[in-house]
Specification:
Strands 1, 5, 6, 7, 8, 9, 10 and 11 form an eight-stranded mixed β-sheet that branches. A three-stranded antiparallel β-sheet has the order 2-4-3. The mean pLDDT is about 95. Helix 1 runs parallel beside helix 4, helix 2 packs antiparallel against helix 4 and helix 5 packs across helix 11. It starts with a helix and ends in a 16-residue tail after the last helix. It folds into two domains: about 90 residues; about 240 residues, BirA Bifunctional Protein, domain 2. The chain is about 40% helix and about 20% strand. By secondary structure, the protein is of the alpha+beta class. The protein has twelve helices and eleven strands. The protein binds 3,4-dihydroxyphenylalanine (DAH). 3,4-dihydroxyphenylalanine binds next to strand 10 and strand 11.
Length: about 375
């Protein structure tokens, strides 16, 4: 029994002295593991005579329980010690300022596209799209550009490599081909349904390309096209629609003027000017003695309607096209068009818009 007491004292001291969980585990294995010192004693019970065993058995069991309890208690203490040590070294300073989380900005071109879509959406226009790579038919021929007409050259067209059949695709020089695609689709729909052509009212924003580059021209730029086709649409609708648009877009009264012009795909054709004044080196859009050209427009040429299978004796309409980048430069006072495409984060931070504000007519186009 003395030996057992000595053993218990020894193991107890080892448990209490264990400095971490690994040491404690080694102590446990040494005492209570399969070949542990206490386990070996328990194995000896089998060789005892019953009277001896009746005394030694319960005593060893009680010892085992005491040791197990001690180990569990020590383990808990060690876990807590380790945690406290970690807490002491891993301090979180909650008084530090939060890390900056940069928020992106909406590019002025995207902003203006959204604004324009909201305004025309309110007038009942849907948004249509077409491909950037066009064929000659949609970009020129169907729009009444005669073959070898100088207007084709005026567009500074980017041509793609000739195909085997000798035809050549182009990067669209304007968004007007979307007019053709929209009308062709509408004619097909009416044919299939066996009904009259439904009235068309679309705008088509998108990228356009011309071989040109200076402060106000870039090889890729953006236009927005408009097309209205119905049975009784006339020049008055065109003027009212575009005059309204300018006032809403520039968020101020805007004087307008329509000047006769020429486009192959409209007859009559006009350019629309808006009034402005120069003050302290700044351009003030809306009122003033100066006029600046802002868009091209006109009544859709009968030849265009014929080229898509619409009867010009029954249907007519108007079309217009304008530069989105130019609208953005004028409304937001951005001096150089090339900066639009320079991908300079500082520029975008200055001229960009909050992604949290969606342009709308109820709470404001811009903020
Ligand atoms: N497509 C013309 C251009 O890029 C702009 C234009 C003028 C579009 C008159 C039209 C229009 O729809 O009627 O210069």
């Amino acid at each position: 029994m003395d030996d057992t007491k000595k053993l218990e004292d020894e193991i107890t001291a080892a448990i209490v002295g264990a400095s971490d969980e690994a040491v404690l585990e080694a102590v446990r294995v040494d005492a209570l593991g399969k070949k542990g010192r206490v386990s070996l004693l328990m194995r000896g019970l089998g060789k005892m005579v019953p009277e001896e065993r009746q005394v030694a058995g319960p005593a060893l069991n009680a010892l085992k329980t005491r040791l197990n309890d001690l180990i569990a208690a020590r383990k808990e203490a060690l876990v807590e010690l380790a945690l406290n040590a970690r807490l002491a070294t891993e301090k979180v300073d909650i008084s530090l300022p939060a890390r900056p989380r940069p928020m992106g900005a909406i590019h002025p071109v995207s902003q203006v596209m959204d604004e324009v879509a909201v305004i025309f959406g309110d007038m009942g226009f849907a948004v249509a799209e077409g491909p950037d790579i066009e064929d000659d038919f949609h970009n020129f021929t169907a729009l009444n550009f005669p073959p070898d007409h100088p207007a084709r050259d005026q567009h500074d067209t980017f041509f793609l490599n000739e195909k085997n059949d000798g035809s050549q695709m182009v990067l669209r020089t304007h968004t007007s081909p979307v007019q053709i695609r929209t009308m062709v689709a509408a004619v097909e729909r009416a044919k299939k349904a066996g009904t009259d052509l439904e009235p068309i009212r679309i705008i088509a924003p998108g990228r356009t390309y011309r071989c040109d580059s200076d402060q106000t021209h870039t090889p890729m730029f953006h236009q927005i096209e408009g097309l209205v086709i119905d049975k009784e649409t006339h020049m008055g609708h065109l003027k009212g629609c575009l005059t309204d648009f300018m006032a809403t877009f520039f968020e101020t009264k805007v004087s307008t003027r329509f000047r006769p012009h020429h486009f192959p795909f409209t007859e009559p054709s006009a350019e629309m000017d808006i009034g402005y004044a120069r003050k302290d080196g700044q351009i003030l859009i809306g009122q003033g003695d100066d006029w600046m050209e802002i868009l091209g427009c006109g009544m859709v040429h009968p030849n265009v309607l014929i080229s898509v299978g619409i009867d010009p004796d029954i249907y007519q309409g108007f079309a217009f096209g304008m530069g989105i980048d130019r609208l953005a430069m004028l409304k937001y006072g951005i001096p150089d068009l090339r900066d639009f495409f320079a991908a300079d984060a500082r520029w975008l931070k200055h001229y960009g818009f909050s992604p949290l504000h969606q342009p709308n007519l109820a709470t404001g186009l811009s903020s």
